[in-house]
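Note to self: the last two entries modelled the partners one at a time, which told us nothing about the interface. This time every component goes in together.
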Amino acid sequence: EIVMTQSPATLSVSPGERATLSCRASESVSSDLVWYQQKPGQAPRLLIYGASTRATDIPARISASGSGTEFTLTISSLQSEDSAIYYCQQYKNWPYTFGQGTKLEIK
Amino acid sequence: EVQLVQSGAEVKKPGESLKISCKGSGYDFSTYWIGWVRQKPGKGLEWMGIVYPGDTDIRYSPSFKGQVFMSTDKSTNNAYLEWSSLKASDTAMYYCARLVVGPPYFDFWGQGTLVTVSS
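The predicted structure of the combined assembly is written out below.
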C-alpha cells in the first residue's frame, strides 16, 4: 500500500499571503494525485486532479505541481474562506490512499 | 444537477447490524462508480472501496474487506454500505461519492452519514 505523508500537520498563514502544502508518496505515483479541501462540517471538495489540473470552478490562485513522490499545493492571496484541511490522495495503485491532511489556519 | 443524498444519522449498539444508503440523481447512476470514505471523529479520510452499479463490481480496500458490504440497486439509484455486527470502532462519518473514471477522482460527494456505535 502506498503511504502518503503530508506536511506540515498545521500551517498558520496571514490573509493575503501564500501557503505551501506538501505531500510525499512512499513510492512513485507518477502524476496520479488529487487534492481535496474539507471545511468543518462539510464533505470534501475536489480541488486538483492529475497532480496539477484544477477542477471546475477552482480559482487560479490555487495551484499544484509535482510528480513521482513529491507534490505541492500552493494557495496564493489567502482568504479566510481557505481555512480548511487539505488532503492529497494517490490513485496510482489500489488501494487508493489519502494523506493524513494539513490543517490550514488563516491568522 | 448531480446530487448524492445519504440517509440520516444512526445510533446503534455493538453487535447490531446496519445498512446506510446513498441516493444518486441528476446523472446516469449506472455508469459511475460510487465510493465510500470513512472519517473517524477528528481524524482524516480513509478509502473504503468502490462499487459499480452497472454490474455490481466491487473493490474493497484491504483494511475494510470482510468488515463491511457494499451494494447497489440501480432500479432505485441507491448505493448501500452495510455492517452485520457493528463495533464501537465503527463510529464515524461515512461519505459516499461519485467516482470519475480516467483519471479516477471523486467529483461529487454526499453530505455524510454519522454512525455512532455505543452501548
